[in-house]
Design a protein that fits this description.
The protein has 416 residues and is an alpha/beta fold. It folds into two domains: 4-32 and 280-408, Beta Barrel (Lyase, Ornithine Decarboxylase, Chain A, domain 1); 34-277, Alanine racemase (TIM Barrel, Alpha-Beta Barrel), CATH 3.20.20.10. 28% of the residues lie in helices and 26% in strands. The strands form three sheets. Strands 4, 14, 15, 16, 17, 18, 19, 20 and 21 form a nine-stranded mixed β-sheet that branches. Strands 5-6-7-8-9-11-12-13 form an eight-stranded parallel beta barrel, surrounded by six helices. Helix 9 links the parallel strand 12 and strand 13. The chain starts with a strand and ends in an 8-residue tail after the last helix. The relative contact order is 0.16. Bound molecules: pyridoxal-5'-phosphate (PLP) and 2,6-diaminopimelic acid. 2,6-diaminopimelic acid binds at residues 162, 164, 199, 201-203, 239, 312, 371. Belongs to the Orn/Lys/Arg decarboxylase class-II family. LysA subfamily. Its cofactor is pyridoxal 5'-phosphate. Residues 29-369 form the Orn/DAP/Arg decarboxylase 2 C-terminal domain.
């Protein structure tokens, strides 16, 4: 059952009315459901029961400390892509031994810190990174656990900006050259080979591309075994899509079952790096209509959230559901472009939406739990939104709304 339900015409998250949160915290405001995030993580964990596994939540999808904390308490590991994300995991009480470090541009300082904390492994994305990691590890007198991120040249059939497993993408090591890089890794004294990794993109809505990628990885795993290089784990990345509109991605259980079947009886621990499928539909962005404006061509609803708060519609022309929080609050029924105050024509949350609106209407933008707040900015000198986590009948402000003082901090006028 969804954590978001209507009762007497009012949208609730768990047992809390969204109007109550907007009234107390103002808008724009992100609101997340603890139960929905936990249920999604549990779906991964239970589908993986009976096989060695680690679910490493992709921190980039929603990196609020409270979110990381609740997932860590339920046994999640974490997939990170920066030293900053590593410090978030530590601050949230996550276990560094369950952290995998992805990303094409890791820096020596980030590697050193990750080695100091004893992370589980580095997903190395290039031969040059492999050499640097070896030298950083040796300089610190430790051995770095290594997994190579292979690029299988598989089309994820998703938006080109979030497709990462094609040869032309910057990610991973060309799978045709991966054996040579493994051989090189085996020679380096500062490294220990532990696994193989792959992540082909985000918002995938069928299992086919995942299975193609896994098939390519398993070919390599078998070739490595023939050379005496055995791996402890296979990391198939994240990427499972969610339903924003009418997509029909496989359920978490179906997706895991398909991948488990593909891996078969091989003695490999399965690692996953899900982001969106854990948090996207556990969150909404609350926004208030400020003005209604009519032109010859369009009806505009000017709301107080903008592309700086939620950039997915502007960046990917992503579709997210927008609904009024209170039914029957009245207003003008029509087809509206829901747009923000930012000075860009791309500043829209949704276009051509059938809604009944008046100034003051409270709207919920659904599917905002992933790649929402984390991608927000201060463009147009707009303080970033507050974040609230609902837990049953209670709710907690897990990030305060930014103030203008926050925005000016660190800036200086000329000295004279
Ligand atoms: C290496 C890696 N793993 C996992 C993820 C999470 O992807 P998703 O949110 O689609 O599950 C990403 C997405 O950015 C990624 O780059
Ligand atoms: N970096 C991710 C995709 C991030 C997608 C996200 N930014 C979105 O809003 O859809 C990847 O490697 O697949």
């Amino acid at each position: 059952m969804s954590a978001f339900q209507r009762r007497d015409g009012e949208l609730f998250v768990e047992a809390v009315a969204l109007t109550a949160i907007a009234g107390a915290e103002g808008t724009p405001c992100y609101v997340y459901s603890r139960a929905a995030m936990e249920a999604a993580l549990d779906a991964y964990q239970s589908a993986l029961a009976g096989c060695r596994h680690l679910v490493c939540y992709a921190v980039k999808a929603n990196s609020n400390l409270a979110v990381l904390d609740l997932l860590a308490r339920r046994g999640a590991g974490f997939d990170i892509v920066s030293g900053g994300e590593l410090e978030r995991v530590v601050a949230a009480g996550g276990d560094p031994a369950k952290v995998v470090f992805s990303g094409v541009g890791k820096q020596a300082g980030e590697m050193a810190r990750a080695l100091e904390l004893g992370i589980r492994c580095f997903n190395v994305e290039s031969p040059a990174e492999l050499e640097l990691l070896d030298s950083v590890a040796r300089a610190h007198g430790v051995i770095a656990p290594v997994s190579l991120r292979v690029n299988p040249d598989v089309d994820a059939e998703t938006h080109p900006y979030i497709s990462t497993g094609l040869k032309e993408n910057k990610f991973g090591i060309d799978s045709d050259g991966a054996l040579a890089v493994y051989r090189r890794a085996a020679e380096l004294a500062g490294l220990r080979i532990v696994g193989m990794d792959c992540h082909i993109g985000s918002q995938l809505t069928s299992t086919g591309p995942f299975l193609d990628a896994v098939a390519r990885m398993l070919e390599l795993v078998d070739q490595l075994a023939d050379e005496g290089i055995t791996l402890r784990h296979l990391d198939v990345g994240g990427g499972l899509g969610v339903r924003y509109r009418d997509e029909q991605p496989p359920a978490i259980g179906q997706y895991i079952a398909a991948l488990r079947a593909a891996v078969g009886e091989r003695d490999l621990e399965l690692v996953f790096e899900p982001g969106r499928s854990i948090v996207a539909n556990a969150g909404v962005l609350l926004t208030t209509v400020n003005y209604l404006k009519h032109s010859a061509w369009h009806n505009f609803a000017l709301v107080d959230a903008a592309m700086n708060d939620f950039i997915r519609p502007a960046l990917y022309e992503a579709w997210v559901d927008i609904e009024t929080v209170s039914d029957g609050a009245g207003g003008e029924t029509g087809t509206w472009d829901v747009v923000g105050p930012v000075c860009e024509t791309a500043d829209f949350l949704g276009r051509g939406r059938e809604l009944t609106l008046r100034p003051g209407s409270l709207l919920a933008v659904r599917g905002a739990g992933a790649y929402g707040f984390v991608m927000s900015s201060n463009y147009n000198t707009r303080p970033r939104a507050a974040e609230v986590l609902v837990d049953g009948e209670q709710w907690h402000v897990v990030r305060e709304r930014e103030t203008l003082d926050d925005l000016l901090r660190g800036e200086r006028r000329l000295p004279n």
